[in-house]
C-alpha cells in the first residue's frame, strides 16, 4: 500500500491552482485529482498514483448509503452536493447511517476508477461527520483492514 507523498499532492495541486500556503485544503486537492483523472491519461494516473494508495483526508457530501439501517457503502458528492463521484466502502457496518446531505471527511485507499460515469471507489480507513467544510470536532470512525 502506498501513501501519497507531499510532492505528489503538490503536483496535483499545481494542476488546479498555484500553491498559496503549505496547508492543502481537501476540496482544492480533490479538484486537482479530478481534473487530472479527466485527462486522456487519467486511467494511467489512477493506476500509478491513486490505486492502492492511502489518500490524504478528503471532504464531501453523502448522497446515499446502503444498506439503509446499518450502511457499509456511501455515495459521496465532492463538488455539487448531489452528483456522486466517490463510492466509499467500509469493511464493517455503521451503527447509524449518515443522512443524505451530511458533510463527511474521510481517508481512503484508492481501489477503482471509471470515467463514464465518473466514479472513484475508495476503501475507507476512517470517516467522520464534519460540522462545516472548515472544521471537524468529532473524532473519526476508524475502520481497520
How many runs of DSSP E, i.e. beta strands? 8
Hey, roughly how much beta strand do the residues contain? 25-35%
Question: How many alpha or pi helices?
Answer: 3
The N- to C-terminal Cα distance equals 12 Å
What does the secondary structure layout of this molecule look like, with pairings?
Elements: E1 2-3, H1 6-16, H2 26-37, H3 42-50, E2 53-54, E3 58-66, E4 73-77, E5 86-89, E6 103-114, E7 119-129, E8 141-142
Verbal overview:
This protein has helices at 6-16, 26-37, 42-50, and strands at residues 2-3, 53-54, 58-66, 73-77, 86-89, 103-114, 119-129, 141-142. It is of the alpha+beta class. It has one domain: Nucleic acid-binding proteins (OB fold (Dihydrolipoamide Acetyltransferase, E2P), Beta Barrel). Strands 3-4-5-7-6 form a five-stranded mixed barrel. A two-stranded parallel ribbon has the order 1-2. Strand 6 (103-114) and strand 7 form a beta hairpin. Helix 1 packs across helix 2 (26-37). It is globular. 25% of the residues are buried.
Amino acid at each position: 500500500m502506498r501513501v501519497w507523498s507531499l510532492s505528489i499532492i503538490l503536483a496535483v495541486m499545481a494542476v488546479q491552482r498555484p500553491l498559496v500556503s503549505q496547508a492543502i485544503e481537501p476540496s482544492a486537492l480533490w479538484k486537482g485529482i479530478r481534473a487530472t483523472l479527466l485527462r486522456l491519461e487519467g486511467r494511467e494516473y489512477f493506476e500509478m498514483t491513486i490505486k492502492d494508495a492511502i489518500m490524504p483526508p478528503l471532504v464531501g457530501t453523502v448522497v446515499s448509503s446502503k444498506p439503509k439501517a446499518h450502511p457499509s457503502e456511501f455515495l459521496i458528492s465532492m463538488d455539487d452536493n448531489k452528483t456522486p463521484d466517490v463510492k466509499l466502502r467500509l469493511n464493517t457496518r455503521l451503527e447509524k447511517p449518515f443522512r443524505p446531505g451530511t458533510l463527511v471527511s474521510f481517508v481512503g485507499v484508492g481501489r477503482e476508477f471509471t470515467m463514464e460515469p465518473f466514479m472513484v471507489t475508495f476503501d475507507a480507513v476512517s470517516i467522520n461527520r464534519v460540522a462545516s467544510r472548515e472544521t471537524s470536532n468529532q473524532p473519526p470512525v476508524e475502520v481497520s483492514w
